[in-house]
Design goal:
mainly alpha; 88% helix; 121 residues
Length: 121
């Protein structure tokens, strides 16, 4: 089970490096998402910093599980916020894109569960 936890943490980390890095570097795809969601650029960049911080926690958490647990809880909260931002737009096309947020949220819940199981042993 520990191997599954590590693999899923790495997958989640890679996803967050792409999304968080895009926000921090203000890459075109991230800027387009920001503009669709009507998010202030500084707030958007701050979210990117939080995503990269979660990557650090998830990777360090491979060896020190409490860091991974804390980072995964943070990612779950970020995904809830991302989904709520999509709902706030009222645009059905943008809301359908929220399925990806839900998928990341579910993956994060699995990582949280595996971290708790690992800590309980």
């Amino acid at each position: 089970m520990d191997l599954v936890r590590v693999i899923l943490s790495i997958i989640l980390s890679l996803m967050l490096v792409v999304t968080g890095g895009g926000k921090i570097l203000d890459l075109p795809y991230a800027r387009a998402n920001r503009d669709k969601l009507s998010v202030h650029p500084l707030f958007w960049r701050g979210i990117g910093v939080l995503e990269i911080a979660a990557v650090v926690g998830l990777v360090w958490g491979i060896w020190f599980v409490p860091f991974s647990l804390a980072a995964a809880i943070g990612v779950a909260l970020l995904m809830i916020g991302a989904f709520l931002f999509r709902v706030r737009t009222g645009d059905k096309a943008i809301q359908r894109e929220g399925v990806a947020d839900i998928a990341v949220f579910v993956l994060t819940l699995v990582v949280i569960t595996l971290n708790i199981i690992t800590l309980a042993r």
